[in-house]
Structures are given as C-alpha cells and as structure tokens.
Amino acid sequence: MTTEQQLNTPATEAKTETAQTNQEIKHETTIFAEPIFHLGQFTVTNSLINSWAAALILVIAAAAMTKRITGIPRGIQNYLEIFFEGALNLADSVTGSREKSMKFLPLVLPLFLFILLNNWLGLLPGVGSIGFVESLHGEKVFVPLFRGATADLNTTLALAIMAVILTHIAGVMTTGAWGHLNRFININALLVIPKKIFKNREYTAILVQPINFFVGLIELVGELAKMASLSFRLFGNIFAGEVLLGAMAAIFAYILPLPFIFLEIIVGIIQAMIFSTLTLVFLTIMTTAHGEGEEHQEAH
Amino acid sequence: MDSIISTFHIDYKLMLAQLVNFGIIVGVLWYFVFKPLAAKMTERTKTIEKSLDEARQIADNLKSSEQRHQEAIKAARQEAEKIIGQANALTAAEKQRSVETAKEEVKKVVAAGKKEINKEKEKMLAEVKTQVADLVVSATGKLLEKISDKKIDANLIKETLKEIS
C-alpha cells in the first residue's frame, strides 16, 4: 500500500507533479477515511489513528490528574472543578435535577471531551498534510496519515448509535420496559378506549387514542432520525471545515487559512456541545415517565 | 442505504473500534477523574455545610447567651435597686429611731439635770434659809444685846422666825 512518503500541503482537487515520474499525484479530501495499514483483517484508517491519539491524550491527562485531586484544591484542580461545576450546572438546567445530572454527566462529559479533542486534533498542522503517495487504479494518490476522527462518518455514527441506545437503556431502567415500550408502541392508548367511552363517556377517545398510537410509531421513526441527525450534523460540520481549510490553503497557504482555523476552533466547541447536550436532552426525555407532562398539565 | 455505506465507507468494525475507544475514555475518566473529584467535592460541600450549620449554631448560642447575659444584668440591676431601696428605707428608719432615741436621751438627761438642779436649788435654798436664819438670829441677837429687853427680844425673835419660815 505504502509507496513513498513525503510532506504535502492540503489541497482540494489540487494536482502536483513529482519530479521522478512526471505523473500527477491526486490530492483529494475524500469524504471517507483512508486505510493506512491492516491488523490481521482489521483495517486501520487515518481517522482511527486520530481517535486513538485523542483517547491516549485523555487517558494520560486523566491518569495525571488523579494524583492531584485532593481535599483542598490547588493549581489545575481549581480549573477542573470550575469546569466540572459549570458542566453540572449546565446539565442541571437540562435535566432539572442534580441527581440525574450526576448520573448522566459521566457519560455526557467524556462524549463532549472526546468529540472536542477530535475536532481540534483535525486542525493541527500535519493532520491531512503528512502522508504518503500510493498507486490506485493506475493513479498516484496522496493519502494523509491523520484525519480528524469526527470527519469520518464511522466515528460520528458509532457515537450517535451508542448515544441513542444508551437513552433507551436509561429509559427502560427508569420507566420500566412496559412504560418504555408504550412510548413507541402505545398499546395503552388502545387499551383505555373502552374505559374512556363506557365509563368516562369520553366519546372523542375513539379518535384521539388511535392518533396517540400512531404518534408513538412516528416517535419510533424519530429515533432513527436522531441517529442520522446527530451523526451527519457533526460529520458534516467538521468535514466541511476541513474542506474549507484545504481550499483556503490551496488559494494562499500562509495567512488566508488563519481566520478559518479560528472559526473551526469555535465550530469544534459548538459541535461538541451540541452533540453532548442533545444526548443529555434525549437521556432526560427518555427517563421522564411517558405522559408525565400531560398529567401534570391536566392536574393544573 | 447501500449507497450511503459505500460512499462513506461505513464499516461496523471501525465503528466498534471507535466505540471501544470511547468506552475506554469513559471508564478512565470516570475512574480517575469524575469519581474522586465528585467524592472530594461532595465531601467538601458536606464539610462546608456542616461548618455553616455549626457557625449558625454558635451564632444562635452567642445570641441566646448574650440575651441571657443581658437578662441577668437586668435582673441584677433590679435586685440591686431593690436592695438599695431596702437599705435606704432601713437607713432612714434607723436614722429616725436614732434621732428619737437621742431625743429621748436628751429629754431624760435634761429632765435629770432639771431634777438635780431643783434638788440642788432646794438644798441651796434650805442652806440659804438656814444660814440666813442663823445670820438673822446672830444679827438679831447682836442687835438685841444692845437693846437688852429680853422679853421684846424673845417676841421679836419668834415673829422673825415665823416670817422667815
């Protein structure tokens, strides 16, 4: 696979010529992560390498931090506590309860940090520009060694699927399997029709309850939409940022990309925040008993 | 769906690898950072709350102690005023009694003095009378010696003595 290694500047659809062969080397920012090497049957892509790097950084930082955590905070622990307290308060504003925030934050905060670090690692010099040239279908193609992990749909889709599945696990654990099932396949809505008609004399139930049943089915479709929206939003934004930076570098490599790099730093924070906050919102919704809000309104 | 998978090179093995990566991060961060940090922060919050409660209790105790102190001072002052009042009343009564006693003593002394004076006066008068009588007798005797009428003398003496007595 690896033919020759060299340093290159990123460019979208840019073409250069090598001195040795006079054959064009294609520089394309592909929409997918390129394979770098194989471990048995497992293909390691450039985005996975970045993801490993992000994981390694976080693990080292966590291991280094644990020794510094004391009863009386000093130095970096102060900043860590400010960050943690801020995250808790933000989570409280979404969940409405400190207990829920303490349960969900150990999942949501690493999600935020992992996505943020991967978004920012994709902006580092060398990511997308250090690589090798390989021959593919008779063409010489530049393959970068590193690629922002969130600029690969495999990463964002995996995180989105995991987030949605975890919301369902949390929902089952909180509201029970039957209650959670009725959120989507609202059998209760159909079962209460005779009671509402014959006992409560609510004849509109014959129309309203089937609608409630179908709303549940629509919510089921909504769960798939959640995965798609979470994964494609993050992937789209980060990949678009990489393409933008590549295009700017191709126009004028020295100063022009700078404002866009700052823009991408902010985009990285915002996208990490959106992904983790939406996950927290979904967790909160799923752990709230179905129809709790309506009953509350009816009580008033 | 197939076109999406082929376009984006979706590979379940890669997805699993990413999930394993993320799982490691969650585990490590939870074990090394969140758990100890949350424990320390909770412990500190509890300590602060306990200290605040204690401080509040101390302040309450101080306030009630101050109140008790003020009440004690007030009671002591009232007691002192009462004692002073009683002492003043006692002093006044004692003073009055002393004055009265002194007055009585003075009266007694005066009365005794008067009695003594009268006694002395009577005694003196008696002595004076005796002396005057002796003097008169002596003078009359001497005078009558010159007159030498014993009968007249005797009558004169008797009359004189009668007048004197």
TrEMBL record, chain A:
GO molecular function, one term: proton-transporting ATP synthase activity, rotational mechanism
The encoding gene: atpB
GO biological process, one term: proton motive force-driven plasma membrane ATP synthesis
Alphabetical UniProt keywords: ATP synthesis, Cell membrane, CF(0), Hydrogen ion transport, Ion transport, Membrane, Transmembrane, Transmembrane helix, Transport
Role this protein plays: Key component of the proton channel; it plays a direct role in the translocation of protons across the membrane.
Species lineage: Bacteria, Candidatus Buchananiibacteriota
Ion transport is among the record's keywords: yes
HAMAP family cross-referenced by the UniProt entry: ATP_synth_a_bact (MF_01393)
Family (UniProt): Belongs to the ATPase A chain family.
Region feature (Disordered): 1-21
Membrane topology value: Multi-pass membrane protein
Protein name: ATP synthase subunit a
One of the record's GO cellular component terms: proton-transporting ATP synthase complex
Gene3D superfamilies in the cross-refs: ATP synthase, F0 complex, subunit A
Main location as per UniProt: membrane
Record InterPro entries: ATP_syn_F0_a_bact/chloroplast, ATP_synth_F0_asu, ATP_synth_F0_asu_AS, F0_ATP_A_sf
Domain of life: Bacteria
Localization, UniProt: Cell membrane; Membrane
Transmembrane portions of the chain: 49-66, 107-133, 153-173, 234-255, 261-283
One Pfam family of this chain: ATP-synt_A
Keyword Aminoacyl-tRNA synthetase found: no
UniProtKB/TrEMBL annotation, chain B:
Coiled coil: 48-123
A molecular function (GO) term: proton-transporting ATPase activity, rotational mechanism
Protein topology in the membrane: Single-pass membrane protein
Record Gene3D superfamilies: 6.10.250.1580
Gene Ontology CC annotation, any one: proton-transporting ATP synthase complex
CDD domains: ATP-synt_Fo_b
Segments crossing the lipid bilayer: 12-34
Cell compartments where the protein resides: Cell membrane; Endomembrane system
Family (UniProt): Belongs to the ATPase B chain family.
Subunit structure of this chain's protein: F-type ATPases have 2 components, F(1) - the catalytic core - and F(0) - the membrane proton channel. F(1) has five subunits: alpha(3), beta(3), gamma(1), delta(1), epsilon(1). F(0) has three main subunits: a(1), b(2) and c(10-14). The alpha and beta chains form an alternating ring which encloses part of the gamma chain. F(1) is attached to F(0) by a central stalk formed by the gamma and epsilon chains, while a peripheral stalk is formed by the delta and b chains.
Annotated function: F(1)F(0) ATP synthase produces ATP from ADP in the presence of a proton or sodium gradient. F-type ATPases consist of two structural domains, F(1) containing the extramembraneous catalytic core and F(0) containing the membrane proton channel, linked together by a central stalk and a peripheral stalk. During catalysis, ATP synthesis in the catalytic domain of F(1) is coupled via a rotary mechanism of the central stalk subunits to proton translocation.
Protein name per the record: ATP synthase subunit b
Native species: Candidatus Buchananbacteria bacterium RIFCSPHIGHO2_01_FULL_46_12
The encoding gene: atpF
